[in-house]
Amino acid sequence: MVTIKDVAKAAGVSPMTVSNVINDHPNVRRSTREKVLEAMARLDYRVNVAARNLSKGRTGTIGLAVPEVNSPYYGRLAATIITAAERHNLRVSIEQTDASRENELHALSLSRNRLYDGLILSAAGMRQADAERLKVDHPVVILGERIFGGPVDHVAMPNVDASRAATRHLIERGCRRIAILCGAVEEVDVSSLRLTGYRQALKDAGLPVDSALMQHVGKLDMHEGARCAREMADSRLDFDGVFCVTDSLAMGVLRGLADVGVRVPEQVKVIGFDNVAESAFFIPSLSTVDPDHNTMAERAVDLLTRRIEQAEPTTDREEFVSDFSLVIRESTGG
Amino acid sequence: MVTIKDVAKAAGVSPMTVSNVINDHPNVRRSTREKVLEAMARLDYRVNVAARNLSKGRTGTIGLAVPEVNSPYYGRLAATIITAAERHNLRVSIEQTDASRENELHALSLSRNRLYDGLILSAAGMRQADAERLKVDHPVVILGERIFGGPVDHVAMPNVDASRAATRHLIERGCRRIAILCGAVEEVDVSSLRLTGYRQALKDAGLPVDSALMQHVGKLDMHEGARCAREMADSRLDFDGVFCVTDSLAMGVLRGLADVGVRVPEQVKVIGFDNVAESAFFIPSLSTVDPDHNTMAERAVDLLTRRIEQAEPTTDREEFVSDFSLVIRESTGG
DNA sequence: ATGAAAGCGCTAACAA
DNA sequence: TTGTTAGCGCTTTCAT
Predict the structure, then answer these.
(1) Is the separation of the CB atoms in B301 and B262 below 8 Å?
(2) Is the distance between the Cβ of B27 and the closest atom of strand C smaller than 7 Å?
(3) What order of strands is seen across the sheet that includes strand B269-271?
(4) What is the pTM of this model?
(5) Residues 103-122 of chain B whose Cβ lies under 8 A from any Cβ of chain A
């Protein structure tokens, strides 16, 4: 293993000078720099990042805890975050939490073990009551709709407004009996917030809010969407529109409705939330809400790096809510 | 920051004893262990992983270089690898290469920087001629169909056999003019190998190999699949079956054919390769090849950890090819 | 069973 | 501009 000392010896300088060259410090004479670079190349020297980290008290890595990386939504999030982190010269280590509270807390403790310089936690299992657990000695940015006003920076979606807009769109397209597919509604989360927007839109339009039209599923995935859609149709529930709180659910619904011969958008119109890549290619293509993923991911990384680089901890907290836009496709009549 | 020394002082023992406790070494008296554990808890001590890594010459992290994490195929691969690595107490740091040769070589150099204990490289840009570049001083496992017989362990898919089986399936379902959608065929890669299987199946069945039916696209993604399918239909190419070398391409093809009013499977049958999650939910659902992702990912991690743990480097190399199965769905007539 | 010494490879702070 | 010193927090080795 070639060390900085070996290079120093080979170049006839001190280890410190080699370090200065490696780190592009200004006070190195051009000729010295060249000598050192030549020696580095000749010996095929590589910095030992562990040693540098120990010395600097940094790891150069941030953690990203998401429920699962293999989903259109979190996959895209992870991809964007990795790319954004690269620009700050940070690597991203991924933790899959399976949306469990315990695993999310575990990810927090890993960041406390100084494995990461900071953690981006996409909370899906923790509750508002766990907010205090976010107070760790390393920077944390939280993503998602489970914890608001916590002790750390937070990036969220415009859940209520966007859901209201999505539902309003269905109404404008003539739907009068609009179902919503969401998860269990116990406390503040994706489902409860989007349900609120849905209710608001109905109220705005003077439509009744019928609890028979609120369908609660176990997981917000394609399987559940398909199953639920088939059940709704089989049970002869009267509905002409469906707002799904995620695109995965919505794609499942499209499949489920096709299974039982319900035509979309002629008989039932469907809209989702997330604008995942596949939604444009589904048949029919899926109308949806685009919450500006890129900005969200970049904002999260920016907030985190700001905290990492900031010398003294401060108590100000930033709450960032992204913009959104409606993407109208075939599933609501183009 | 609480260090091992602080704990030692608090517990009235030496730092070494604390270290022994942390690492579950046997030679520690029970009472001593308890004292130390108590002190650790009281001071809220956390090991400094960077320091441990420097000392041990390990990082506890492996690198995973994939073209992009936000694709159904690589997302699933990443998810499975992260889970498998967890079982070995390894974290996974993800590098996105965008399938570029340069970025893949860069990932190799990062692993040389001792950032990772080892690297799983899903090669999509490197060429057979680059095989020698895989000879680095840290363990590497290569995934994919670009480099065979290189200097490192290799995990691959049963490309030729599986493609042959997929094409044969189309023939058995009555197709006689079967198109193939693949990328540019310059050297050994996904496209060339699967094209070989396609040719073999045609030959087996005594069908002519018509180069007009071989469609080459730029990227193996949904956009290109849709575009190509529309062009094939618009150009009045005569075909009654399509074998797509990836599911992403195939989902695009389903969309493209729908755009121009071609019915699947009645007029044209379509089969893909990968069995990504979405393929079961597409309308029509997509027949495809399932290459046993889990085994592949686990095998890759197993091979890598074996190398990491092996004291002396050896020159034996393992070439692992996964099993496959055909998944028959609506797009080929159920 | 426990501890002392040395060092992993690097960099911050200061000295020359 | 360059070099010296002194660690970063941990583990390995060897002594006790």
Answers:
(1) no
(2) yes
(3) B214-216, B178-182, B241-244, B269-271
(4) 0.91
(5) 109, 112-115
State the pairing for strand pair A319-321/A153-156: parallel
**What's the rounded Cα separation, in Å, for the pair B237 and B230?**
11
Contact A258 B283 (CB under 8 A): yes
- The answer to whether the beta carbons of residues A178 and A171 sit under 8 Å apart is yes
**What is the Cα–Cα distance from A247 to A251, expressed in whole angstroms?**
6
Which DSSP string do the residues of B62-73 spell out, in sequence order?
EEEEES-SSSHH
B16 in contact with A, Cβ within 8 Å: no
> If pLDDT is split at 50, 70 and 90, which confidence band does B70 have?
very high
Size (chain A), residues: 334
* DSSP assignment letter at A285: P
Q: Which residues 238-277 in chain A show a CB within 8 A of chain B?
A: 251-252, 254-255, 258, 277
Among A176, A161, A162, A178, residue whose Cα is nearest residue A270? A178
Q: What is the mean pLDDT of chain B?
A: 93
pLDDT tens, position by position, B46-68: 888 889 888 988 888 999 999 99
**Cis peptide preceding B67, ω within 30 of 0:** no
Asked if residue B144 lies in contact with residue B124, where contact means CB atoms within 8 angstroms, the answer is yes
Q: Do A113 and B277 touch (CB under 8 A)?
A: no
User: For strand C, is any atom closer than 7 Å to the CB of A109?
Assistant: no
The mean pLDDT of chain A is: 94
| Model pLDDT, residue B311 | 67
Instruction: Name which of A170-174, A228-232, B44-48, B108-112 the model is least confident about.
Output: B108-112
Positions of strand C less than 7 angstroms from a protein CB: 1-5, 7-13
Window A:21-50, CB contacts with B under 8 Å: 46-50
A82-96 confidence digits (pLDDT tens): 999 999 889 999 999
Q: Please give the pLDDT value at position B287.
A: 98
Q: Do B48 and A69 touch (CB under 8 A)?
A: no
Residue B145 has what pLDDT?
Answer: 92
User: Which of A244-253, A310-319, B96-105, B164-173 is least confident?
Assistant: A310-319
> Any alpha helices (H) in A205-246, and if so which ranges?
222-234
Percent of chain A with pLDDT over 90: 82
Under a CB-based contact definition with an 8 Å cutoff, are residues A157 and A325 in contact?
Answer: no
Residue B269 buriedness (CB in 10 A; 0-12 / 13-18 / 19+):
buried
pLDDT surpassing 80 at residue A111: no
Q: What CA–CA distance (Å, rounded) separates B134 from B103?
A: 13
